Amino acid sequence: MDVKRHVSELRQAKALDIFCEDCGSARRFQRRHLLELDMGGFTSFQQLAAKLVCRHCRERKGQGHNVTLRPRWFSHPRMTVRH
């Protein structure tokens, strides 16, 4: 039986930018952190977004759930055409 293994979104990204839409704070998770989250059971950005909160908004007694995730993908090498 040949079973294809699903590769998580977190493993496919090189970094993840996280922005709070309420206060404007930003943070970047580097690849190492994304791989740790993947090993911890997170496989999609949607799953991760449900757990993330803005620390700055929480300190000000806000909910802190208005965060946006922007993955940074690996760039593919440009194809060169030989004549």
Description:
The relative contact order is 0.26. It is built from 4 helices and 3 strands, in the order H-E-E-H-H-H-E. The model has no long low-confidence stretch (mean pLDDT 86). Strands 2-1-3 form a 3-stranded antiparallel sheet. It is of the alpha+beta class. The chain has helices spanning 9-12, 31-39, 45-49, 55-59; strands at 13-20, 26-30, 67-73.
Give the structure's gist in a few sentences.
Helices cover 28% and strands 24% of the residues. It is built from 4 helices and 3 strands.
* Global geometry: elongated
Please state the oligomeric state of the protein chains shown: single chain
Beta-strand level of the residues, as a percent range? 15-25%
Query: Spans with pLDDT under 50 lasting ≥5 residues?
Result: none
Count of individual beta strands:
3
Structural Rg: 17 Å
N-to-C CA distance: 45 Å
Give the number of helices.
4
Helix content: 25-40%
Topology, please?
Blueprint: H1 9-12, E1 13-20, E2 26-30, H2 31-39, H3 45-49, H4 55-59, E3 67-73
Antiparallel strand pairs: 1-2, 1-3
Which key features would you list for this structure?
83 residues, alpha+beta, three-stranded antiparallel β-sheet, 28% helix
